[in-house]
Specification:
Blueprint lengths: L1 H8 L1 H20 L3 E2 L2 E2 L1 H23 L4 H14 L3 H34 L4 E6 L2 E6 L8 E4 L9 E5 L2 E4 L1 H4 L5 E3 L4 E2 L4 E2 L4 E5 L7 H10 L7 H31 L2 H14 L3 H6 L1 H12 L3 E3 L4 H5 L4 E4 L1 H5 E12 L6 H12 L5 H14 L6 E6 L3 E6 L2 E6 L1 H6 L6 H12 L3 E7 L2 E12 L3 H10 L3 E5 L4 H11 L3 E3 L4 H13 L4 E5 L5 H6 L2 E5 L5 H6 L2 E3 L7 H34 L5 H20 L13 H7 L11 E4 L2 E4 L7
Parallel strand pairs: 13-20, 13-22, 20-21, 22-23, 23-24
Antiparallel strand pairs: 1-2, 3-4, 3-5, 5-11, 6-9, 6-11, 7-8, 7-10, 12-24, 14-19, 15-16, 16-17, 17-18, 18-19, 25-26
Helix pairs in contact: 2-3, 2-5, 3-4, 3-5, 4-5, 4-9, 5-7, 5-11, 5-24, 8-9, 9-23, 9-24, 11-23, 11-24, 14-15, 23-24
């Protein structure tokens, strides 16, 4: 019974069976096989033509819509009237076959997107008073304590409370290697727990989790809303009206010059070949295929017309923090002021006293110190003065770390020899953390938001595509110019408030210079909304920025922005080719049908040939790629690290997570 139910509800297998039965009937009809005195081609007419006729008449009755299906209906009626049952069956069969091929190709474009839906967890293990219960994932509420076992999918976003494991997050961030998870780490819904059991607290509900938001973003990409799609739909309606008038005119002229039967046959051929199916498919299939292509790179298109708009853009505006840079402080310089201290020792002392700090600068110092030392001494007598700094005892030495004012309040003055270094750091936008040891100034640790390594190449590729880059940032001019110079951007606007970014974009739009805006934060939302195309970084992060954007970069990887720009232009070229092919075949077919060189069967072949060519050409966009996705083989080979003595691969730390890999390209 389950098989029967699935067969009746799934159009794919059912239509395939109908086509096979109809094909067998047409083959039998070619050998003059009859049943109860009737041509067996009637089977193809009923099975393949019935749905077309019903849909056309239903649309006409409900909304007075004259569709392409109505043209086929009139052509079938003409063939039946002339007792050309075999021709009617052939037309119905070819039309249904063409429709099935179109649906299969478009389905391939949507396959990667719909995979997200299938990956959505349906149940969760909820812990209540120490008792585990399995509940529907949609019943999970923020604050619930959940448990996920090895091999299970994380149902909703949350923070690990207990347990250690490795989690496959490739669906969310595109990274092929699993990330280690321990108490305090964040979990994303839809990711796969691989090794150990984890207990965690839910921070989002099912529909608002990472996987849920990705699905919502994808489903909002409605290709039918694109301006060029609406234009093609309007053209198609007028073509249908023109087809009816052309068929009537052909019938009238041929009726007087040739005869009624030939006149009706030619009119039927005109109706079939005039169907604007290829024209209707020319644009949406290309858009859907392009959206499917971008989904593989972690780029989700929220607005169907975004790629059409992007194809005409020649300017790109970057926000700095979190877009061109990592959006988090990193140690860029360590400057000892005491000759007895090395850089490593100074950093180790600062890291040890900052280890209990929750300040972002303190965490960055600890990360850098651990990267160099591996292990840090534990600080005792720890104390923190919010907004100023921290102090503690490390290895018997009293250590202060923080602002200059904090050290001066403890009678530690900043030496004149360091003043010049401070001016240089300020000019580059770096922030100093001053360190004192046993009441004497020991040196400083400079931190700054560092440039993403892929930023210069990305900007260079965008320039190669004719894009003019601009940096719009709220940072100070010195820091903005430093980052812009490193990235290869020459036009900079610093100290920008959200309103200033909006004014800059408005001015460019008024000058006829539409742009693509890339940002990640709440302050970028107005600019993302106003730009010709808005691209938000971190699809699982900034809600307001994502809501304002047309496109979302789930992977937070700007390397694929040039690919997106190039693909949008390729897509529009595909659309123009599709339109030219569909119109060219239509007009050629009409001329041949009017001249009597195309009967209804061959008219159906020509008609569907146009549709198949259009869909096949659009499907090429699914796998189109302008730039290589992976590093060249020679570069990877040069970076490969030999295995350790025990045969294991070395650890690579990335954003606080450890991975095992042979090189940074793999890790």
């Amino acid at each position: 019974m389950t098989f029967v139910t699935r067969f009746l509800t799934d159009e794919g297998p059912r239509n395939t069976l109908i086509l096979l039965i109809s094909l067998a009937a047409l083959v039998a009809s070619a050998f003059d096989v009859t049943v109860l005195g009737q041509d067996v081609a009637w089977i193809a007419v009923v099975l393949c033509g019935g749905p077309i006729v019903w849909s056309a008449l239903d649309g006409l009755a409900r909304s007075r819509a004259i569709t392409a299906g109505l043209l086929v209906t009139l052509a079938l009626a003409a063939c039946i009237y002339l007792d050309e049952i075999f021709a009617a069956g052939e037309v119905a069969f070819i039309m249904m076959l063409g429709e099935l091929l179109e649906e299969r190709t478009v389905a391939r474009a949507r396959a990667g997107i719909e995979k997200l839906v299938r990956l959505t967890p349906r149940t969760a293990r909820r812990l209540h008073d120490g008792v585990e219960e399995v509940v529907v994932a949609t019943q999970v509420r923020v604050g619930d304590v959940l448990r996920v076992l090895p091999g299970e999918t994380v149902p909703v976003d949350g923070v690990v409370l207990d347990g250690r494991s490795a989690v496959d997050q490739s669906l969310i961030n595109g990274e092929p290697l699993p990330a280690d998870k321990e108490p305090g780490d964040e979990l994303f819904g839809g990711t796969l727990n691989q090794l150990g059991a984890l207990t965690y607290r839910a921070t989002r509900e099912s529909g608002d989790s990472a996987i849920g938001r990705m699905i919502a973003l994808v489903r909002s990409a409605d290709a039918s809303k694109a301006r060029i799609v609406r234009l093609m739909d309007r053209w198609a309606r007028w073509i249908v009206y023109g087809a009816v008038l052309s068929a009537i005119g052909t019938w009238a002229v041929c009726f007087w010059l040739i005869g009624p039967e030939e006149a009706l046959m030619r009119a039927a051929s005109v109706l079939v070949v005039f169907c604007p199916c290829a024209l209707v498919l020319a644009t949406p299939t290309a858009i859907v295929a392009a959206i499917g292509n971008l989904t593989k790179y972690g780029i989700l298109v929220r607005a169907g017309d975004a790629l059409e708009r992007l194809a005409g853009v020649r300017n790109i505006a970057f926000d700095k923090t979190g877009t061109l840079t990592w959006g988090r402080p990193e140690v860029v310089r360590v400057v000892p002021a005491d000759p007895s201290l090395t850089e490593d020792r100074l950093l180790a002392l600062a890291g040890a006293v900052e280890e209990s700090s929750e300040h972002p600068l303190g965490k960055a110092v600890v990360r850098a110190a651990r990267a160099r030392q591996g292990h840090l001494d534990r600080a005792s007598d720890f104390a923190m003065l919010p907004g100023m700094g921290v102090e503690g005892t490390v290895g018997g030495q009293s250590v202060l770390a923080g602002k200059a004012a904090f050290l001066e309040s403890r009678s530690v003055s900043i030496p004149e020899s360091v003043r010049h270094e401070l001016e240089t750091l300020a000019a580059s936008g770096a922030t100093p953390v001053h360190v004192a040891v046993d009441g004497r100034y020991a040196g400083l640790v400079a931190l700054a938001d560092t440039l993403r390594p892929e930023a210069p190449e990305t900007v260079s590729r965008l320039k190669g595509l004719g894009m003019a880059p601009v940096l719009l940032t709220g940072d100070a001019p010195e820091a903005a110019r430093t980052i812009a110079r490193s990235a290869g951007i020459h036009t900079v606007r610093a100290n920008c408030l959200p309103g200033d970014k909006l004014e800059a974009i408005d001015a460019m739009e008024r000058r006829g210079e539409p742009l693509l805006m890339i940002g990640d934060g709440i302050n970028d939302a107005p600019a993302l909304k106003r730009a010709r195309v808005g691209l938000a970084m971190g699809g699982v992060g900034s809600d307001i920025a994502v809501d304002a954007a047309d496109v979302v970069l789930i992977r937070d990887d700007i390397r694929f922005v040039p690919h997106m720009v190039a693909l949008s232009r390729r897509m529009m070229g595909t659309v123009r080719f599709n339109i030219a092919v569909s119109l060219g075949l239509n007009f050629l077919g009409i001329a041949l049908a009017m001249a009597g060189l195309l009967n209804p069967f061959w008219a159906a072949i020509v008609h569907n040939a146009g549709s198949v060519i259009v869909v096949a050409n659009s499907s090429l966009l699914l796998h189109w790629r302008r730039y290589p996705e992976k590093a060249p083989a020679k570069e990877i080979a040069a970076a490969v690290t030999a295995p350790l003595a025990d045969g294991s691969l070395p650890k690579i730390e990335d954003e606080g997570h450890h991975h095992h890999a042979c090189c940074s390209s793999c890790g």
